[in-house]
Structure formats: structure tokens, C-alpha cells
Write a structure and sequence with these properties.
By secondary structure, this protein is α+β, with helices and mostly antiparallel strands. The chain has 2 domains: 268 residues, Porin (Beta Barrel); 33 residues. The chain has a 12-stranded antiparallel beta barrel. Strand 9 and strand 10 form a beta hairpin. The radius of gyration is 24 Å and the shape is globular.
Length: 325
Amino acid sequence: MVKDMKILFIAAFMGISVVCFAETEANMPPSQNEDMLAYAAPPPNPLEETIQVVAGVAEASMQLAGSVVDQLQRMVRGPGKPLPPRRNPEFAADEKAIGFEITADYFGKYIWRGQNISDDPVYQPGVSMTMGGLTAALWGNLETTKINGNSGQFTEYDWALDYSGDVPYVEGVGYSVGVINYYFPGLEDTTEVYWGFAFDLPLSPSVTVYHDVDDIKGTYASLGLGHSVERIAEINSDMPIGMDIGASLGWGSTSYNKGYWDSSIKSSRLNDLALSVSFPVDVGGWTVAPNLNYVTLVNNKIRQTDTFDKASDYFFVGISVSRSF
């Protein structure tokens, strides 16, 4: 499976092509004799006036919707494991360029979809390459202590391919589809395919659905919300500090809950609630973002099957560093 993912990872860029669109506009010059036209014009038609009012309201609504920042990406997988960001199709002229991003995250714990993978600090580097709407990414988890007997070792590698864009003919709705291979050295790997939508609305709602296509064949869905503030403070005039707030609520199907939690769970249930706040600041072209995170299991039945801690409430801090070029 890993070999196939690597081949797909490389081949995805071999045949990609990008089409750029140009827009033209024509403006009618204003009349030079408005007084004469107004004098000669027939009495106003009530139907025409109504149409003009409706058209004006529609145009204002479109302008308001267009002013909302498109912040949503796919979809929250939990701290330390974001999906590749969705490219803004307005920048069609740059679609032929290849972009890269490198990330380095350090978290006090590794909590994935409510499951405590590591209760001690972890280091999680990642790299992604984007061309047009296609993104290929590699992410890893490095244990830093002996809590799981793997100090200084990578215990997980995730290979991901994502294609994102705007839904045709639907204003303010973006989509993402992709595949993720989770590779665990010495253990069996697993693969998920996913799809999701992001909406250009206040609080930037998004929904992403993951389907396990290996042994478990379960489904996990995540509803995400987020909000960003560009400047809440500043180190100096050239170094503002922003704030990003995120929240996600996860749901698992019956087969997902049986496979990842316990065979005694015989129905679909809500899984986890994750809250995060980060404070990004630009430092010499790098984005440095200290963050606070809280994850809890919201279903009592699932909480009772948590082998690590029946309380299942996790608060931890971290710091993320990234750069795009």
C-alpha cells in the first residue's frame, strides 16, 4: 500500500495541466444630456422600478459575500494534522507555479480524533507541494520520550493527495477530495478517502467525511468552525500578533466506533470535540504560532471504552512553525 501511495504521490504531477481564464468588462459611458433625457422620458414603470430594486439588493448581497475571507481548508483533523490548504482560484495566473510549504509542530500530547496516541510531547514535521488545485503532502510523528518505548523514533507517516477548488456555478462553496495513507512502522497501515465542503460564511463552516477503505471500512465525519483576527496585539509595528480560533465536532459510524474504540459499541455516535486557539506572528518570513488545545470525548459510552483515561479530557499546549515558498 505504501509503495502504491508513493507512486501515486509522484505520478500525480506528471500529467497536470492548468487553464487560466481572463475576464473582460465593458462599461457604457454616461449620457451627456441627462436633463433632456429626463425631460423626454416616459413616466416611471412600477414593474421596472421593482426589478431595479431587486437587482440592486442582489448586487449588494454578492459584494457582501465576496468580502468574507475564504479561511476554510478541509476540515479539521485535530491538532497537528491539518489537511493541505485549499488554493484560492482567484489567483488563476499563478496556477502553473509549484508551491511548497514546510511545517514543524511541537505539541504536549498527540490526540487524534479524541484518542490519546501519546500523552507526552511529540514533534510533527511536514512538507507539501502544490500545483494548481492539487497538493501532495507528507507528515510524520516523532516520539520524544519513552512513554511508548519509542523515544527518538517516528511512529507514524501520513501520505496524502488532495484536490481542492470551487464548486462550479455555486458562489462561495469550495470542495476538497483526497486520499490519506497512514503508515505505522512495524504495524499494519490503513487508508482513507475523503471529501468535504467549505462555505464562505461567517465562522467559516466546513464539513469533511473520511471513509476507511481497509479492514475497518468505517466513516468519520467532522464539522468545523473557525474565525481569524488579523491583529490583536503587536511586538512592534512590523510584527502584529493575530489570533485563529477553531472548533470541530466528530462523528463515527458503527463500524468506525467498533474498529477504533470497542466492539461493544453497536451504533453510530458523536466522538470528540476539539477546541484550539493560536497566535500567529511573522518572524523573518516564518509563521510562528503558539497554541492552546482542548479535546474531549462527548459520548459517555465511548468515554468508558477509552483505555488510557476514562475522564478523556485533554488540555495541552504547542507551537507551530511554517513557511511557504
